[in-house]
Design a protein that fits this description.
two-stranded antiparallel sheet, DNA-binding transcription factor activity, 12 helices, Arc Repressor Mutant, subunit A, 7-stranded mixed beta sheet, D-Maltodextrin-Binding Protein, domain 2, 303 residues, transcription, 3 domains
Length: 303
C-alpha cells in the first residue's frame, strides 16, 4: 500500500458498519449515497481487500471488513485523543477559560453571562464550544474544557453539577397546523403517539422530553424529523412541517408575534433545570467559578 487511507474514508466505513447500509451512513454524514459508495470502493482498492458485501437489503461487512473496521475504530479513537490532547495543551498555553455549552444555553443565556464576566475580568480570554449536552459532558469529564453547561436531565459519571437556571419546554406549531385551532390540551398519550420534529439523540431537549414522557407512563414514537439545531427545527415548524417541543427561550419572540402557536399540554411536566458541570476530581478554576456566579445572579434576576 503506497499511502495511508484518509481519515474520512475510515469514518465512513465505521459508520456503514454501525448503520448496516451505505444509504444510512450517507444520511448521517450529510452526503449522497453514490459519494459514500465511491469512497468505500476507493478504500477497497487502496487496501486491496473487499470490505463490504452489497445487496438490496443493505451492506454487510466481509470477514476482512470486520477486521479492518475494528482497526479503523481504534485508529479514529486514538486520533480523537491526539486532537483533544493538543487542544488541551493549546488552551493551557493560552491561559484562557474554555467553556462547552448546549445549544439553548449557548445561544440564549451564555452571551449575557459572559458579558457580566467580561466586565469583572476584562483581560480574560474565553473560548466557547457549542454542542449537544452529551458531548458537553464528555469534554468536561475528560477535562478538555474548564466548565460545561447542559440542559439534559442526566449526566455521565465523573461529573459534579450545580443548577444555574430553569427553563420550560413548550409544544409549538405553525398557525396553519390543525393543532393551532384546537380547544383542548394535548395529553401525554397523544403527544407521545405523535411524531414530532426533534433534535438528535444526546440533545438535552430531546432527552428532557423523553424522560418527561417516561415519568408520565408513556414512550415517544420515532421523530417525524431529526435536525441538528433548534434553529433548524424552528424554521421547519414555521413552514408547517409539523409540531415540535422547544425551549420557551427559543420561541418566545415567535409566540409573541403570533407566527407560532403554543399548544397546551396535559399530564406531562416540561419544566427543566440548566446546570453547570465540572469534573468530580477537580475544582473549577477561578474564572469558571466566576462564570457560574454570573449565571446564578442572572437567573435570580429573571425570577
Amino acid at each position: 500500500m503506497e499511502r495511508l487511507p484518509d481519515v474520512s474514508s475510515l469514518q465512513l466505513l465505521v459508520q456503514v458498519a454501525k448503520r448496516g447500509s451505505i444509504g444510512a451512513a450517507a444520511h448521517d454524514a450529510g452526503v449522497s449515497q453514490p459519494a459514500v459508495s465511491k469512497r468505500i470502493t476507493a478504500l477497497e482498492r487502496e487496501l486491496g481487500v473487499r470490505l463490504l458485501d452489497r445487496s438490496r437489503r443493505g451492506s454487510a461487512l466481509t470477514d476482512a471488513g470486520e477486521l479492518v473496521t475494528g482497526w479503523a475504530g481504534r485508529v479514529l479513537d486514538e486520533l480523537t485523543v491526539l486532537t483533544d490532547g493538543v487542544e488541551a495543551l493549546r488552551r493551557e498555553a493560552a491561559g484562557q477559560l474554555t467553556v462547552a455549552a448546549s445549544l439553548t444555553v449557548a445561544e440564549h443565556l451564555l452571551p449575557g453571562w459572559l458579558g457580566k464576566l467580561r466586565r469583572s475580568l476584562p483581560e480574560l480570554h474565553v473560548g466557547l464550544q457549542v454542542m449537544n449536552s452529551m458531548r458537553v459532558c464528555e469534554l468536561t469529564r475528560d477535562q478538555l474544557v474548564d466548565v460545561g453547561f447542559i440542559e439534559s436531565p442526566t449526566m455521565i459519571k465523573g461529573l459534579r453539577s450545580r443548577v444555574v437556571a430553569r427553563d420550560r419546554l413548550v409544544l409549538v406549531v405553525s398557525r396553519r397546523h390543525p393543532w393551532a385551532r384546537r380547544r383542548r390540551p394535548v395529553d401525554v398519550t397523544e403527544l407521545a403517539a405523535t411524531p414530532v420534529i426533534s433534535r438528535e439523540r444526546g440533545s438535552g431537549t430531546r432527552e428532557t422530553l423523553e424522560h418527561a414522557a417516561s415519568r408520565a407512563g408513556s414512550r415517544l414514537v420515532a421523530p417525524l424529523l431529526e435536525l441538528g439545531s433548534s434553529a433548524a427545527i424552528r424554521s421547519t415548524v414555521l413552514d408547517a412541517g409539523g409540531p415540535a417541543v422547544l425551549s420557551e427561550l427559543i420561541v418566545a419572540a415567535d409566540l409573541a408575534a403570533g407566527v407560532l402557536v403554543e399548544v397546551p399540554t396535559d399530564g406531562i411536566d416540561l419544566t427543566r433545570v440548566l446546570r453547570a458541570v465540572w469534573p468530580s476530581t477537580a475544582t473549577p478554576p477561578a474564572p469558571a467559578e466566576a462564570l457560574i456566579r454570573c449565571a446564578l445572579r442572572s437567573s435570580s434576576g429573571r425570577r
